[in-house]
Amino acid sequence: PLRNFRELQTKFPSFRMISPSFGGNTSDVEFEMLTGMSNAFLPPGGVPYEHYLNKATPSIPQILRDSGYRTIAIHPYHDWFWNRRNVYPKLGFEEFVSLNDFSSSQQRGWFISDEALVDKIIDTVNNAGRPFFIHAVSMQNHGEYDPRRYAPDEVEVRSELPEKLRLALQTYVTGLKDSDQQLARLLQYMESRSEPIITLFCGDHLPSFGPDLALYRESGAVQSDPGNVSLEESFRLASVPCLLWANKNGIL
After folding, report:
1. Residue 57: pLDDT band by 50, 70, 90 thresholds?
2. Radius of gyration, CA atoms only, the chain
3. Which of 58, 155, 196, 220 is the most buried (most CB within 10 A)?
4. 135 vs 168: CA distance, rounded Å
5. Which residues are paired to 74 by β-bridges?
């Protein structure tokens, strides 16, 4: 399902990121990536976007905005979710393109499709007017991974997993394939631009696939007793792939 991503990994720098989250709480990952600060020093249950970001905060978008860049956040979901509509301006974003701006866009499963997201990114770049920084967060393949969510156009997964888990994995893998195809389309467009462009593409966290890591246990990826996940397995569950891409030689 990640054919394009795997091919790009052979040509461009790739690495794995240790995410501060698992199965949800995307905003915690955004906070670390945009500010360089860690959630590790917060009390249990502390959410930066909801509890702490109440004033201008040093961040990548703020640095770039001060340097003349147009800074835009794009996320095809409700602007109130994770308090983004209040937080993004404090992180230096001058514009937030949210679900209201996707009113006539195509859905795939439950949410706005990755195809529509890429369309919006391309349109935003075309109208940027000056150097730009875009922080785009996909919504299409967000959990829960209910069976037949993308039916009938689904990747078939054959395995000896319990049927409910097999169908959940099939839903997830179908969404991965869609994301991979749209990544290739986005980079094909970026390659046509005359200005130098750097793109970072990564997952924010792994999916939980239900309570107690059921799919991970059934597949053998996690073998520790429930409630006693080993340190090695914890790192594995926190590890997500990332790719750096550029449309010009010599800038990475």
Report:
1. very high
2. 19
3. 155
4. 28
5. 97, 136
Give me 214's structure tokens: 């059921």
**pTM given for the model:** 0.94
Q: Which residues of 51-68 are buried (b: 16+ CB within 10 A; e: fewer)?
A: eebeeebebbbbebbeee
CB 50 within 8 A of CB 83: yes
How far is residue 237 from each of residues 27, 205, 231, measured CA to CA in Å? Answer: 18, 8, 10
Element (H, E) at 16: strand 14-18
- C-alpha 87/C-alpha 40 separation (Å) is 20
For residue 189, pLDDT over 90 is answered with yes
For the stretch 231-245, pLDDT in tens is 999 999 999 999 999
Question: Mean pLDDT across the chain, nearest whole number?
Answer: 94
Q: Where are the alpha helices (DSSP H) in 107-229?
A: 114-126, 163-191, 214-219
Q: What pLDDT was estimated at residue 204?
A: 94
